[in-house]
Amino acid sequence: MFDFGPSYRVLVVDDQATHRTITRKSLEQLGHRVVECAVPEQAAAVFKVVRPDLVLLDVEMPEHDGYWVARQLRAIEAGGWTPIIFLSSHHTDEDIWQGIHAGGDDYLAKPLSPQLLTAKLHAVHRLLQLRLKLLERSEQLREANERLAHVARHDALTGLLNRGGLDQALHEALQRCRHAGAPLSVMLIDVDHFKAYNDALGHVAGDAALRRVAQLLRDACPKPGDLAGRYGGEEFALLLPGTPRSGAMTLARGLLRIVASAAIPHPASSVGPHLSFSGGITTLVPDEASTAEGVLLCADEALYAAKSRGRNCFYSFEMQMDTAEQRDLLRGV
User: Fold this and answer.
1) Assigned domain for 158 exists
2) Is the same domain home to 245 and 288?
3) Is the pLDDT confidence value at 20 over 60?
4) What is the tens place of the pLDDT at every residue in 195-210?
5) Which of the residues 94, 136, 234, 325 is marked catalytic?
6) Please, what's the b/e burial string for 78-100 (b: 16 or more CB within 10 A of its CB; e: otherwise)?
7) Do residue 85 and residue 171 come from a single domain?
8) Of 125, 122, 83, 120, nearest in space to 105 by CA
9) Domain CATH code at residue 27
10) Strands of 54-58's sheet in order across
């Protein structure tokens, strides 16, 4: 006789008390725990509560037969799998086909043979172990895919979204804001004279400075839906769904104060002794004509204006970029 190993919780569905008793005693002798159900219409409810490891299901029952019960159980699982073995005094090819078609996994003829029952349970045990291994492998694969997706969308140096990740996030933000009728603000931010910084202090120091800037931008994002990314080189981007122009301008002033307070030395900058930002802002309520490319183009034009007007400032594409108001509001101190 096989050593079946661990104890399982078995649901026995049979309208005949004598048959249930025989089956229960056979299973208990093998070390398993048994829950009985005499009414086929109640089997699904018992199954939900018990969540058995195995179901032994009589075929011939009044009102609803075992095939009907099996279909109910399979509908409950919704992607899971609990082995179902039919019990029947009829075991022709047609009976077996109908049982498998209804969702069963095997067939046992009545009266039960303890030795055959043990063998069937041993086979079920092997299938359960195989399923557990497959589930573990599937979970490992899912986690690996999530890690790969994270790596593919994030910049290795700063940990922020990379250009591809930003493009995808911008498309998604446009869709959400278009659907909600909400504003979307986008900032492109450039570290002033960063090539000169690398030339003066070296690329190791430059990488450290970019990581520091990335952390400043990440910490400055005021809302959970806001995203920071590395647009390329020393350029960064902020996506601010639900933020109107006034909110974006307020954040821009805050960023200028934050980078000034960080006081990261920049010995080769013509702007001042410390690292500084230039930035371009664009704000819109997206419609069907709005595109990610168009949004980035507007932000880039505003960034170019900020650079051409002395750097260490932000400009908004939607406002006249050479107005006194813009200079007063957004020029760094």
Assistant:
1) no
2) yes
3) yes
4) 999 999 999 999 999 9
5) 234
6) eeeebbbbbbbeebeeebbebbe
7) no
8) 83
9) 3.40.50.2300
10) 33-37, 9-13, 54-58, 84-88, 106-109
Assess whether pLDDT exceeds 60 at residue 325: no
What's the domain count of the chain? 2
Together in a domain, 15 and 118? yes
Q: How many CB atoms lie within 10 A of CB 139?
A: 10
Structure tokens at 101: 């078609």
Which domain, by its residues, includes 76? Answer: 9-137
Same-domain check for residues 57 and 195: no
Contacts of 23 (CB under 8 A, 6+ apart): 12, 14, 34, 56, 87, 112
Residue 261: phi and psi, rounded to 5, are: -70, -30
Same-domain status, 182 and 319: yes
77 a catalytic residue: no
Give the helix ranges, DSSP H, for the chain. 17-29, 43-50, 66-77, 93-101, 114-153, 163-180, 194-201, 203-220, 245-262, 292-308, 324-330
Residues 196 and 307 in one domain: yes
Give 154-183 pLDDT, tens digit per residue.
999 999 999 999 999 999 999 999 999 999
